[in-house]
Each structure stands twice: as structure tokens, then as C-alpha cells.
Amino acid sequence: MPRSIWSGAISFGLVTIPINVVPATEDHSVRFHQYHLRDMGRVRVRKYCEIEDREVPQEEIGKGYEISRDQVVAVLDEELRDLPLPTARAIEIVAFVPAESIDPIRVGEGYYLQASGTVAAKPYALLRKALERASRVAVAKFAWHGRERLGLLRVRDEAIVLHAMRWPDEIRDAGTLAPGEVRLSDDEIAEAEHLIERMTREDLEGPDFVDHYTEALGQVIEAKREGHAPPEAPEPEAGAGAVLDLMTALRESVAQAKASRGEGAEAEVHELPRKTAAGKTAKKAPAGKTAAGKSTKRAEKKTEKQTAKETAKKAAAEKTAAKKAARRPRSA
């Protein structure tokens, strides 16, 4: 378990729960340093004092607030920890709300809250169990990193998680980004819903949810370490050509989603609606009628027409023969 990065208490009405804050996530990104490529010398950023014109060690560096160019007020870390604010050393719960009422765009990094000591174990477990049974999340206020923040407390497994939240005025308005009015048919919307249904998952496990970028970067670094050329990028799969029709793109996407999950692609592939000369969409045949059934029906109709034509032709020939026989003179 990583080290605690903050300690304080959860204020839950008159209940106080001492806690430690522990990072809940890890960053597995590959880190690079800066080097001078000519001689591979390390390039470093050094901190210099403008007045003394010398490099300053970290222990001599602190925070300051610039009131004007000529006046700067130094603020010590100890003074920030002891701010005259109720939330300076406590996560103060102010409300409980349904989780779905929180816009995810306001939710930030997650941290585990760890009960600090045996005294905190029972109230900690009480809050966790109450949140579970009420199907609620807690909204709290706390002071951290130089400002007062909103926080969201939720249950994950056996732990309480704290998410830093953004204030409402920190969310930019997305109204200007939306496209103008777009006309969509019911068939297009239904096909998009069908695609969503096919791509729905119960979890985020499997090869689709692996960091392939980090894997590929590791292969490049290993190849260069051994003096080999980096592996070549795979050729992109040949596409089926530009798809100009939105409905065609949706239906092909549904077929691909089904194929990727090992499902038969034949059972539910829909035909594109045919348009008549008047521009109206032809009515779809009932689902129970297969292509084979339609072919059989057409063959039967064709046979009936051909039989009727042959019968009429035969009757006409017999009638002509009768007339010719009637005109012949009878022999004595």
C-alpha cells in the first residue's frame, strides 16, 4: 500500500472518523528524461534566484503571493495547514445524493480513505455500510492543495473512496460546441441503438482494454537497447471502401461487433430498404419470410402464368383447326 499523502478526519454529523488519504490509482506511463542528443548528456532544469543569481536548493524554496511587483508575501506550508477553516483538517460531509445525479465531468482523481487506528474502525464501517444500504454518495467539503474543494465519497469494495470534484463554475459551457439541427430517421436511431446493444459489456476486461501503446513503446526501447532497428508498424487493414450511407455504416458496424464476439452474422443482418420510383420506401416483408420462401413464391407465380399462357395457346390452336375443317368440301 502506498504511503499516506494527507491525514485528517471525516466529519459525519457529530461523528468524527480519523482517516489517512492514500492514492487509489497508479500511473504506468513510460517516463522519459531530456538529453542532449549530440553527446547524450542529461539536460536538467535548475532553479536560480533572480537577485543572487545562483542556484537555490529545494529547502530554501517556499510559496509567495505577489501583491505588487515590489511586494511579495511569503506563505509557509505550516500556515496553510493551520488555516482558520473548519475543512482545513477535516472532510466535512454536507449532503447525500444519488450517484446518478452527479455529472461525471465534475469527478476527478480518486483516493482511498483509510481508517486511522482502532478507534476509527467502527464509525468508518458504519458510514460505509450506511452508504451501501442507502444507495447514496456523500458530497463533502475539504481544503487541499491551496484551496477549498468539493469531494465525493463512495463505496468501492470494503473501502470508502474520495473523489475531488470541480465546482460548477469550473465547468465550461458546451452549448456552443453542439452541431446545428440535424434530422435523423427512426430507422437510423433504431440501428444505432442496436449497435450499442451489441457493444454493451458487463465488464472492462479482455484484450480490448490493454495499454497497447506502452507495450509497443517497450518493444521499441528493447530493440534499440540490443542494437536492432525498431519493429515496423503493422499495415492497416484494408477497408471496404468509403461508406457514403449512414445506415449502411451502422449495419456494417453491427455485423462487425457480432463477428468480434463470435456470434453468427447472418441471423440479424438487415437489408437496406428499397425505394420505389415515387421515392417511397418499400414495405419490408415479415420477419418469418426468408429469401428462399420469396424465391419459391416467385417461381410458383411464374409457373402459373406460363401454364395459363400455354393453355390459352392450345385452345386457340384447336379453335383454328376446327374452322379449317369446317371449310373443307365433303367427298361424295
Order of helices and strands: EEEEEEEEHEEHEEEHHHH
* Residues in helix, %: 25-40%
Radius of gyration: 38 Å
Overall strand count = 13
**What topology, given as strand order, has the largest sheet?**
1-2-10-13-12-11-9
Query: How much of the sequence is in beta strands?
Result: 15-25%
Oligomer: single chain
N-to-C terminal Cα separation, in Å?
129 Å
Segments where pLDDT lies below 50 for 5+ residues?
A: 275-292
List keywords for this structure.
alpha+beta, seven-stranded mixed β-barrel, two-stranded antiparallel ribbon, 30% helix
Overall description:
The protein is extended. A hairpin with a 4-residue loop joins strand 3 (35-36) and strand 4 (41-42). The longest helix has 37 residues, at 291-327. The protein contains six helices and 13 strands. The strands form four sheets. Strands 1-2-10-13-12-11-9 form a seven-stranded mixed β-barrel. The termini are far apart. By secondary structure, the protein is α+β, with helices and mostly antiparallel strands. 30% of the residues lie in helices and 23% in strands. Helix 3 (186-198) runs parallel beside helix 5 (246-260).
